[in-house]
Amino acid sequence: MGELNVIGSTQPFWHLKEPEWWDYVDLIALGQERAWTEYPVKSLIDNGVRVTFSGDHPVSPINNPFWAIEVAVTRNLNNPEFYGVDEITSIDDPTWLLNPKERISVLDAVKAYTINGAYQLYRDDKVGSIEKGKLADLIVVDQDIFKIDPLKIDQTKVLTTIFNGKPVFGGYDY
Fold first, then answer.
1. How many other β-carbons are positioned within 10 Å of the β-carbon of residue 92?
2. 13-37, pLDDT tens digit by residue?
3. CA gyration radius for the chain?
4. Structural domains in the chain?
5. Three-state secondary structure along the chain?
6. Which of 2, 30, 77, 78 could form a disulfide with 70 if both were Cys (CB 3.0 to 4.6 A apart)?
7. 66-111: pLDDT as tens digits
8. What's the sign of the alpha-carbon dihedral 42, 47, 52, 58?
9. Do residues 98 and 16 make contact, with C-beta atoms less than 8 angstroms apart?
10. CA–CA distance, 109 with 71 (Å, rounded to integer)
11. Is the link from the previous residue into 94 a cis peptide, with omega within 30 of 0?
12. Is 55 left (phi over 0), alpha (psi -120 to 50) or beta?
């Protein structure tokens, strides 16, 4: 895929042993080894594949990119309240952990939602990164997802959305 410049479009909302799903669907349908190694995002990136992220709502629970980024980085439970299960305190908690060898960095996850997605749409010359000459499309969030505990990424809130250089959500009163 990397050699042929094939884009790997994935929905990382599923890249964990999802409560009430993985044991009853993935494990049974695929068997232990294949279910454990499904969604090989890091392997794709390591082999030169440009990965993009998206959601497939209404199938995905809530199409919140921060939920997906957390799962891509931890390969573990995000938003326990949504699933009605107990919170985990370690990204290595085995309860919902799916193949930690496929964890990716926060930077790779952000790129999958931004510049890589823009590339997939043939728009990386106009959007996808903050650079001179590109449209000013960006968000301001309430925490630095590059520095916090990865298990807290799902709690990130958007304070302001700027589209084409103009605020369209929130404001500047932080």
1. 11
2. 999 999 999 999 999 999 999 999 9
3. 17
4. 7-128 (3.20.20.140)
5. CCCCCCEEEECHHHCCCCCCCHHHHHHHHHCHHHHHCCCCHHHHHHCCCEEEECCCCCCCCCCCHHHHHHHHHHCCCCCHHHHCCCCCCCCCCCCCCCCHHHCCCHHHHHHHHCHHHHHHCCCCCCCCCCCCCCCCCEEEECCCCCCCCHHHHHHCCEEEEEECCEEEEECCCC
6. 78
7. 999 999 999 999 999 999 999 999 999 999 999 999 999 999 999 9
8. negative
9. yes
10. 10
11. no
12. beta
Neighbours of 44 (CB within 10 A): 20
> What's the rounded Cα separation, in Å, for the pair 11 and 13?
6
Position 7, amino acid: I
Q: How far is it, in rounded angstroms, from Cα 119 to Cα 124? A: 5
Distance CA 75, CA 169 (A): 31
Joined together, the tokens standing for residue 88 give 């985990």
Q: Token pair for residue 161?
A: 């959305």
Q: What's the pTM?
A: 0.94
